[in-house]
Structure formats: C-alpha cells, structure tokens
Write a structure and sequence with these properties.
Helix content is 43%, strand content 16%. By secondary structure, the protein is α/β, with parallel strands linked by helices.
Length: 243
C-alpha cells in the first residue's frame, strides 16, 4: 500500500489531495494546525490519520515527524499563507509573517523529514506561478514562493544522486479559503478539487514541474521571458490593483 504525508491538509488543496489519495487506497497522514479540522478530514476515510502541529514552531515539527505512524513514499509539502503589500509599502511585518510560514516553515519540515528519505522517496512542494512574474501587491507572497522554488530546485541537484525524486507545483488561482479573501479579479480560477487532480496526475507521471491551469500559467511564463522593463509595462496595462 502506498503512503503519503500532506501538510496543510485541513483545508483547500491539501484537504482535496488527502481525500483523493485515500480514495485511491493510499494511507494518508493529514497534517495541519487544527485537530478539529483534521478530524473532519478523517471522517472521509479510515485511511486518513491526523497529525496536528504548528509548522512555524520548529520543535513541534521535529516532534511530530519523529512520531510518524508510518514512513511515507510521497511527501507533499503544501501548507502556505498569503498576505499582500498595499500602496507599495514594504511592510516588514507582513513579509516576516509570509516568509515564516512559506519558507522557514517549509525548511523546518524538510529538515525534520529528510532523515526518513530513502531512494525512491518522492518530495513534492507547492509553489506558485506568482514566483515567475512580478505582480502588484504580491511582493511578500511572490518572493516567498520564488525562494521555495529555488530551494527545491537546488536541493534536487543533490537529492537526485540519492534516488530522491522532486516535483515543484506552480498553480494559478485556486478557490480556497486563502483566495476567498482576495479583493481582485482572479482569471481562470479552478476549484481545489480540480487542482488536486492536476497535481495527482502530474506526480503520477513523475513531472518535475507541474503547471496549471495550462493557459493561464503559459501566459505568465511567456511574459516572464520578456526583459524586466517590458514585463513591468505589460503587467501595468493588464493588471489593475484595487484601490
């Protein structure tokens, strides 16, 4: 029986991924801060086991990963947060909060999980298409996801020598509790269930980079190939920040 651990499983994409893998007969460890929400997730299948801890507390992460009920074949690092910078303000408090969850929290999890990695382990990390093109207000979030992408691509160079497979996931807009808070248009948005299907299919096909939805991410990736000044001009014409 295949086994998977998923962080950020109490809502959104992680919640749908846990349900998907359980429906396929996988044993699932669903991780999150809220044991109550994880209990709701576990009600979908007896194959899902909850593991509650705060990703931003290194001691909690280390403790949780030292008491796993089984060693996963697939490690899905999905947990993340998003806040925006308004009026061109480099708000260090916002940047610190976002970086703490998206970058430091991920590093705590990777550090605690790595002793369990063996040849054949698959490590998947959810980034964002926002990491590939500078967008208004997204300085903290986009920078954090750019750091995630670079970190995993760098680690992958050494991990591949150990037989460890890596995948980075670059979603566009996905309907989740995080995007529910957004006050701007989100073109080509898909459901969390659709996102989980894209991810699961990409991982099954051993894709090292998973982009979706195809049209939206292709547009942003193409724009990212332009010189920076051209990128800024195009983005300023296409995207209007809310007042």
């Amino acid at each position: 029986m295949r086994k998977v651990l998923i962080t950020g499983a109490s809502s959104g994409i992680g919640f749908e991924l846990a349900k998907h893998y359980a429906s396929q007969g996988w044993q699932v460890i669903g991780c999150g801060r809220s044991l109550e929400r994880l209990s709701a997730l576990c009600s979908y299948s007896t194959l899902i086991q909850p593991l509650a801890f705060d990703l931003t507390d290194k001691s909690q992460v280390v403790s949780a990963f030292s008491q796993l009920p089984f060693i996963p074949d697939l490690w899905m690092f999905n947990a993340g947060d998003c806040e925006y910078l308004d009026d061109g303000c480099a708000d260090s408090d916002v940047i610190e909060r976002v970086m703490t969850v998206n970058v430091l929290g991920l590093s705590y999890a990777l550090d605690a999980a790595q002793p369990h990695f063996t040849s054949g382990t698959h490590v998947a990390v959810v980034g964002s298409i926002a990491s590939e093109l500078a967008l208004p207000r997204a300085g903290a979030y986009g920078a954090s996801k750019a750091a995630v992408s670079y970190l995993i691509r760098s680690l992958a160079l050494d991990w591949q020598k150990q037989g460890i497979e890596t995948s980075i996931i670059f979603p566009g807009f996905v309907e989740t509790p995080l995007t529910d808070k957004n006050d701007f248009a989100m073109p080509m948005m898909i459901s969390a269930q659709q996102a989980a299907q894209y991810i699961a299919r990409g991982l099954a096909n051993h894709q090292s980079a998973i982009y979706f939805p195809a049209r939206f991410t292709w547009i942003l990736r193409t724009l990212s190939l332009l010189p920076y000044r051209c990128q800024q001009w195009v983005v300023s014409k296409l995207i209007r920040s809310p007042s």
